[in-house]
Design brief:
6 helices; mainly alpha; about 200 residues; two-stranded antiparallel sheet; Four Helix Bundle (Hemerythrin (Met), subunit A); elongated
Length: about 200
C-alpha cells in the first residue's frame, strides 16, 4: 500500500483523469441517442475496461498483488507519468471539442454534429488515443504484471473491435463529409503535412 512514490503519483493522476472524464460527460450522459450501434461485445469490452481501471486501485491500496511486481528503471516510470498526464490533457481536449456529440456507447445523437475542430482537426479518435496513452503509461508507472497491464489489454481489444464499426457508423451518418474528413486526419496519430 503506497509503498512506492509511483503508486501515489498514479493514484493522483487517476483521480485527475477521472475528474476530467466526469466533468466532460456529466451533462451529456442522458441525452437521447438516435442511432445506437451498441452490441453485447461492445458492452463486454466496456466492462473489461472498467475492470482494467479498478485493478490498479486495488493494487495501490493493498499488498495482495505485490507478488507480481517487476522492476523498471525510474526514468521509464517517469515517462509513464508524463504519458498519463498527456492522456488526461488529450481527454480534456476531446471532451471540450465534442460537447453534446459525446455518447457513452457507439451511437449518434439526434442533433449530432460532425466535430472537426479542436483536437479533432488533427486526429479522428482522440479519446481512443488518450485511453491508449493511459494504457501504455500504466505498466510503466505500476510495475506489476496484473495491475500494470489490466487496462492495456482491454484497450487494445476495444480499439481493434470498435473503431472500424465507429467509422462505418460515421460514414453512414455523415457520408461524404466524413469521407473527406478521413482523408485529412489520422485515426489516432496526426498525419504529418496535412492542413
Amino acid at each position: 500500500m503506497f509503498n512506492s512514490i509511483f503508486k501515489i503519483i498514479y493514484f493522483i493522476e487517476l483521480v485527475l483523469i477521472t475528474a476530467v472524464r466526469s466533468i466532460g460527460t456529466a451533462k451529456y450522459k442522458n441525452l437521447k441517442t438516435e442511432l445506437d450501434r451498441s452490441s453485447t461485445p461492445d458492452t463486454i469490452l466496456l466492462a473489461l475496461n472498467g475492470v482494467g481501471m479498478l485493478v490498479p486501485i486495488f493494487y495501490v491500496f493493498s499488498t495482495w498483488l505485490d507478488f507480481a511486481d517487476y522492476s523498471l528503471p525510474a526514468w521509464l516510470s517517469w515517462i509513464g507519468v508524463a504519458l498519463f498526464a498527456l492522456a488526461a490533457v488529450l481527454l480534456h481536449l476531446t471532451h471540450r471539442a465534442m460537447g453534446r456529440s459525446w455518447t457513452p456507447t457507439l451511437g449518434l445523437r439526434e442533433d449530432h454534429k460532425l466535430v472537426t475542430n479542436g483536437i479533432f482537426k488533427y486526429i479522428r479518435h482522440p479519446m481512443y488515443a488518450a485511453h491508449i496513452l493511459w494504457a501504455i503509461a500504466q505498466p510503466l508507472i505500476l510495475t506489476n504484471w496484473i495491475a500494470g497491464f489490466s487496462f492495456l489489454i482491454p484497450q487494445i481489444l476495444q480499439y481493434w473491435f470498435r473503431v472500424g464499426d465507429e467509422e462505418k457508423m460515421m460514414l453512414e451518418g455523415f457520408g461524404e463529409e466524413y469521407k473527406v474528413y478521413m482523408g485529412k486526419t489520422g485515426r489516432i496519430i496526426p498525419r504529418i503535412g496535412n492542413k
